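Shipment paperwork, digital attachment
Item: protein structure file
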Amino acid sequence: MSILAFILIGIVAGWLAGLIMRGHGFGLVGDLIIGVVGAVIGGLIFDLVGLSAYGFAGSLAMATLGAVVLLGIAGMLRHA
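Attachment content:
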């Protein structure tokens, strides 16, 4: 996957995660950055459980999962 595709999927995933984690977001720019980092985390989570992501939809699901996890952790730390 090209770096541009990776970043674009991460941006969309961050936006989706911001919608899913209503109240735990960090604004548009923050959620987009979290989405790109979440794409990496999603890849690690998928590797740990032995799953693979194929195509745009699979990559988006993986990145969104990672972004949701990251937003959840960041939200807990922010409120602690």
